[in-house]
Amino acid sequence: MPGCEEAYVSVTASQVGIRGTRCIVGERSASKADLDSGKVFDDHLGLAWGGGSLPYRALLPQRVENLAVAGRCISHERDALDLVRPVPPCMATGYAAGTAAALALEENVTPRELDVGRLQASLRKGGVPFPS
Questions:
Q1: Model confidence pLDDT, tens digit, residues 28-53
Q2: Is 46 helix (H, G, I), strand (E, B) or coil?
Q3: Phi, psi angles (nearest 5°) of residue 118
Q4: How far apart, in whole angstroms, are the C-alpha atoms of residue 51 and residue 104?
Q5: Phi then psi for 110, rounded to 5 degrees?
Q6: pTM of the entire predicted model
Q7: Which of 60, 62, 31 lies closest to 48, judged by CA?
Q8: How far apart are CA 95 and CA 80, in angstroms?
Q9: Chain centroid to CA 107: how far?
């Protein structure tokens, strides 16, 4: 290519990666339409990229107990990947999943049986933004 005769590759990724991989089938699946609509889920746990409300149920696999997932593998529709995979939403789901696990252990319940209001109170106390 003219002008690039002296160019060379100086750094490459250590491995090939892809944006989307597997995700769970959760109690609720986040869709782009929901995340773009301004709808606030009753089990809101934090914000997706762009400010959409993320539901706690998206962290709970349908057929597995005692598990809450976090990051880009939460339950979401294919069109919502770009809104759930960036670092801030992954941090929000990680914080919520960890908090839910601690509260569930404290109450001797599964994450699915956890009182979402108690989880949300703990998340609010920790500084998680909740839309009005």
A1: 999 999 999 999 999 999 999 999 99
A2: strand
A3: -65, -40
A4: 27
A5: -85, 160
A6: 0.85
A7: 31
A8: 20
A9: 24
